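Work Package 4 report. The design task specified in the project plan requires that, given a folded chain encoded as C-alpha cells, an amino acid be chosen for each position. We show below one input record used in the internal validation round.
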C-alpha cells in the first residue's frame, strides 16, 4: 500500500490530473488484494494495475479517461467468466469492483490528495491510518488514525461512529477491504502503515544481495557497519542509508516498528551481542542472526546468562532464513527475506501446495 505515496510523487512531476483506480472488492481468488491501484494520467501515463492485465485493466483505463473528462468518480462492477478470470489471474469466475476517482495534483484544495498527504505523514511517524470511502453515495471520505482520532466524515454521525470502530479493527489487522455497515452502506477501508524497513548490521556479501532484493520488494534499507571500505556506495548503490560507526551505538539511535526487519550479518561476537541486546527490547517484526547453529546457540546462551528473558530470545531466528537449500549469497538472502515476510505475516512459510 505504501507505493501509493511513491506513485503520487512520480505523477505530480509529469501529470496535472490523474484518475486513481482502486480495487475495492473481489469475489474469487485474485492475484491482487483490495487496495491495489492503477493510475491513469491525463497525458496518457499509466502506473500500477488492479489485476495482472487483460480485459479488466483495459476497461479501467477506458473508464478512467471518462472520469477525467467528466471530473466525476465512477464505480465499476465487472463480472468475469472462467476464460476472462483465467486471463486476469483469477483461479475461477468472479467479480471485480473498482472505484475510479479523478485527482488534480496541482490543486492545493483537492480533498483526496490532501488526505493522502496526511496519511503519508502519519506512516512516516511509524503510525497506521485507514482511509474510509463511502461507496455509491457522494463518495465521501473519512481518515481514521490508529489512536482513534478522525478527520472528515461519511455524512452521518452514526455511520461515522461505526466506520471508526471498523477502521480501528482493520488497522490492528493491517487489512484493507469493503464492509457493509449500517443502513446497507458499503464502505471501503484502505489501511496504510509504515513502509517496511530492513536494517542490516554488517556489510558483507549476503548483505549486498539482501539490500538489492529488499529494494525490489519496496523496502527501505539501512546498512550499518564500522568499516567504510565495506559500507560504501560502490558495494551498496541501492541502500537507502549507509551508517558507519560503532554498530551498537547506531542501533541505539534507530527506530524500530512492527514493520522493521533486522538482520545481523557481521559474523562478529562484539557486534552481534551488543546489537541483539538493543533490538530485542524493540517491537521489530523480525530479528535474524546469520550464523551457524552452534555459534548462534552459544550467543543465545550468553545472552540468557546475561539476564535476557528466554521468551525474548525466542524471537531471534538463528540460523536465519528458510530451508530452501541455499548455497550462494543471493540464495541465502532470498531465504532470509522469505522468512522475514512469513514472520511478519504470521504465516508458517510452508509450500502453498500444502
Amino acid at each position: 500500500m505504501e507505493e501509493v505515496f511513491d506513485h503520487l510523487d512520480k505523477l505530480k512531476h509529469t501529470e496535472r490530473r490523474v484518475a486513481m483506480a482502486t480495487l475495492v472488492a473481489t469475489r474469487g481468488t485474485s492475484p491482487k488484494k483490495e487496495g491495489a491501484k492503477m493510475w491513469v494520467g491525463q497525458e496518457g501515463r499509466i502506473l500500477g494495475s488492479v489485476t495482472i492485465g487483460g480485459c479488466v485493466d483495459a476497461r479501467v483505463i477506458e473508464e478512467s479517461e471518462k472520469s477525467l473528462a467528466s471530473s466525476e468518480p465512477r464505480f465499476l462492477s465487472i463480472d468475469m467468466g472462467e476464460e476472462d478470470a483465467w486471463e486476469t489471474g483469477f483461479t475461477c469466475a468472479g467479480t471485480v469492483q473498482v472505484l475510479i476517482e479523478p485527482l488534480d495534483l496541482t490543486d492545493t484544495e483537492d480533498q483526496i490528495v490532501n488526505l493522502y498527504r496526511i496519511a503519508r505523514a502519519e506512516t512516516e511517524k511509524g503510525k497506521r491510518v485507514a482511509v474510509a470511502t463511502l461507496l455509491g453515495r457522494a463518495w465521501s471520505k473519512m481518515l481514521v488514525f490508529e489512536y482513534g482520532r478522525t478527520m472528515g466524515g461519511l455524512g452521518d454521525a452514526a455511520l461515522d461512529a461505526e466506520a471508526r470502530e471498523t477502521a480501528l479493527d482493520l488497522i490492528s489487522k493491517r487489512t484493507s477491504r469493503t464492509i457493509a455497515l449500517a443502513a446497507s452502506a458499503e464502505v471501503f477501508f484502505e489501511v496504510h502503515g509504515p513502509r517496511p524497513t530492513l536494517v542490516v548490521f554488517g556489510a558483507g556479501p549476503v548483505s549486498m544481495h539482501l539490500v538489492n532484493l529488499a529494494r525490489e520488494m519496496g523496502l527501505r534499507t539501512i546498512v550499518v557497519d564500522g568499516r567504510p571500505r565495506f559500507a560504501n556506495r560502490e558495494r551498496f548503490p541501492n541502500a537507502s542509508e549507509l551508517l558507519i560507526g560503532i554498530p551498537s551505538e547506531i542501533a541505539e539511535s534507530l527506530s524500530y516498528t512492527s514493520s522493521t526487519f533486522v538482520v545481523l550479518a557481521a559474523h562478529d561476537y562484539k557486534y552481534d551481542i551488543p546489537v541483539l541486546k538493543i533490538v530485542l527490547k524493540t517491537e521489530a517484526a523480525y530479528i535474524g542472526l546469520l550464523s551457524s547453529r552452534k555459534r548462534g546457540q552459544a550467543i543465545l546462551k550468553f545472552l540468557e546468562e546475561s539476564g535476557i528473558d528466554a521468551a525474548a530470545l525466542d524471537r531471534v531466528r538463528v540460523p536465519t532464513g528458510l530451508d530452501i537449500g541455499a548455497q550462494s549469497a543471493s540464495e541465502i538472502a532470498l531465504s532470509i527475506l522469505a522468512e522475514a515476510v512469513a514472520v511478519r505475516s504470521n504465516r508458517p512459510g510452508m509450500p502453498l501446495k500444502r
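The longest helix spans residues 157-173. Validation will be extended to a larger panel in the next phase.
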